[in-house]
Design a protein that fits this description.
This protein has 292 residues and is mostly helical. The protein has a domain of 203 residues: ABC transporter involved in vitamin B12 uptake, BtuC (Orthogonal Bundle), CATH 1.10.3470.10.
Length: 292
């Protein structure tokens, strides 16, 4: 029990575990929408595009949670909505436009942060450092998680209908475009709240892996959302405890722990995993053997 109780007596670990628990659950819940929409690459692009907003926020208002949060929010909205406008006003597809804008934004962010000065650690934003989480970070993650989960739970059914059957949703009077914009905005908010935990580069792992893991284990949509949230929270807390005792990087430990859960689900899933695939090949091979 000392292995478990000793870390939670340390103030900075208490804050880190709270942020990991909240951010892990929120990201795991939202990741169900990402998996159902098949938009994992879009999430990765958006997470990278937050960096220039953080840099500008730091340059304008100094290094504070508020400046980083507002700057990242503005940058994410500009890149996300800008890619939509660019794709609609040209021959480019949405993914092509997003790729161009997010790579330019990420490069600009790295350049700007490198010019800020020695008081800003670039790796803190690229890879995150949850051990430096402040009380303000805990409060921010709590409210973002509460707002996102409450709104998405209340609107989950119409959002899912609009994702799979947009024409039918419009015929039913569902405001498809506004729901997509709401989902997009909440996704960006949750991404920003994750930066302290895993940074811009690794944020996609926390927002995609939990629901992708559950997706291999069940066809139940309700389980996909709540199971993804539970797995994200448990994986984050477990990784932080392991990282503390073995002196490992907390951000990378979170993503790798979730990756291990995904690998286990892929190997052991009775319906959609490697075990079923191997059984199917074995049965096919036996059926193909001619009888004498």
């Amino acid at each position: 029990m000392d292995w478990l109780l000793e870390p939670i007596q340390i103030p900075h670990m208490q804050r880190a575990l709270l942020v990991g628990l909240l951010a892990g659950f929120a990201n795991g819940y939202v990741s169900a929408f990402v998996v159902l929409k098949k938009s994992a690459l879009m999430v990765g692009s958006l997470s990278h595009s937050l960096l220039p907003g953080i840099a500008i926020g730091v340059l304008v208002a100094g290094l504070t949670p508020a400046s980083a949060f507002i700057g990242a929010l503005v940058a994410g909205l500009i890149v996300g909505l800008g890619s939509l406008l660019l794709s609609r006003a040209s021959r480019l597809g949405h993914e092509t436009a997003l790729a161009i804008l997010y790579t330019c934004a990420f490069a600009a962010g790295v350049l700007l942060l490198s010019r800020v000065g020695d008081n800003v650690d670039l790796n803190q934003y690229l890879l995150g450092n949850i051990l430096f989480a402040s009380d303000a970070d805990v409060v921010t993650v709590f409210w973002v998680s509460a707002i996102a989960i409450t709104a998405l739970t209340a609107l989950r059914r119409p959002i899912i209908v609009s994702l799979f059957e947009p024409s039918a949703a419009q015929a039913l009077g569902i405001p498809v475009r506004w729901l997509n914009l709401l989902l997009f905005g909440l996704l960006i908010l949750v991404l920003i709240s994750t930066l302290q935990a895993v940074g811009c580069i690794l944020a996609i792992g926390l927002m995609v892996t939990p629901a992708a893991t559950v997706y291999l284990l069940t066809d139940n949509t309700n389980a996909l959302f709540w199971g993804g949230g539970l797995l994200g929270a448990v994986g984050s807390v477990t990784a932080l405890l392991v990282a503390h005792h073995f002196n490992l990087g907390p951000s990378t430990s979170i993503v790798l722990t979730l990756g291990i859960f995904f690998a286990l689900a892929y190997v052991l899933s009775p319906k959609y995993g490697l075990a079923r695939h191997l059984r199917g090949r074995s049965a096919t091979s036996r059926a193909a053997v001619p009888t004498p």
